[in-house]
Specification:
By secondary structure, the chain is of the alpha/beta class. The chain has nine helices and eight strands. Bound molecules: 2'-deoxycytidine-5'-monophosphate. 2'-deoxycytidine-5'-monophosphate binds next to helix 2, helix 4 and helix 8.
């Protein structure tokens, strides 16, 4: 049987990773969180004190980076130059740095082949911003997952509190609006819905309802 590739794109806080992870478990596919891959570069730039707006300086760091991804109990873990950075890449500072460095075309090219390779030999659910448009333009199923800015801010707040780094609503909302703007206005692979992607708006749906709709779309589109 041929591999099935499911591309899920959408803005931050739309619930992509939790939903994609649950759907992957239900379908027996590998889940690839590409945001985590970009975050390893954001983390490195933050730690090394390089200005993320200095494109040349960011590009000069790339050859020294060895980014690896592996799975432990079905959970994706990120290694940066041999060190496990899975938890560290979730820090709020890293989110902002990542959004900035991911706008640099050379950073995107640096990660492109790694992402494609992951989908070559196995069925995957891959989430990000440009999976259906750039990374896997021939994916069997494409979903554009979104929710209102307010709903996404509320969900992000809960997630940050769960991770032990709580922030107030206004801060989280502002951060989401800034990232949305940057992710959709950059020249290189901006966040946009692929022409053949199905729009799934989860503003009024809880987790189980969203998962049910997602799996139904996969069943109809993916011929699984
Ligand atoms: O999904 P996330 O919040 O972990 O992503 C972190 C940042 O990485 C986000 O601001 C946009 C960027 N990103 C990207 O440009 N392309 C992807 N495929 C995934 C993430």
């Amino acid at each position: 049987m041929n591999n099935i590739r499911i591309a899920i794109d959408g803005p931050s806080g739309a619930g992509k990773s939790t939903l994609a992870q649950a759907a992957a478990a239900a379908l027996g596919y590998i889940y690839v969180d590409t945001g985590a891959i970009y975050r390893t570069i954001g983390l490195h730039i933050w730690k090394s004190g390089v200005d993320p707006a200095d494109t040349e300086a960011v590009i000069a760091e790339l050859p020294g980076l060895r980014i690896e991804l592996h799975y432990e109990d079905g959970q994706q873990r990120m290694l940066l130059n041999g060190q496990d950075v899975t938890e560290e890449i979730r820090l709020p500072e890293v989110s902002q740095y990542t959004s900035a460095v991911s706008a640099i075309p050379a950073v995107r090219t640096f990660l492109l082949e790694m992402q494609r390779e992951l989908a070559r030999t196995q069925s995957v659910i891959m989430d990000g911003r440009d999976i259906g448009t750039v990374v896997l333009p021939d994916a069997e199923v494409k979903i554009f997952l979104t929710a209102s800015t307010q709903a996404r801010a509320e969900r992000r707040m809960l997630e940050l509190a769960r991770r032990g780094t709580p922030q107030d609503y206004e801060n989280v909302l502002k951060e989401i609006e800034e990232r949305d703007w940057r992710d959709t206005h950059r020249d290189a692979a901006p966040l946009q819905q692929a022409a053949d992607a199905i729009l799934l708006d989860t503003t009024a749906l809880d987790f189980q309802e969203s998962l049910d709709v997602l799996l139904k779309i996969v069943q109809e589109r993916g011929r699984t």
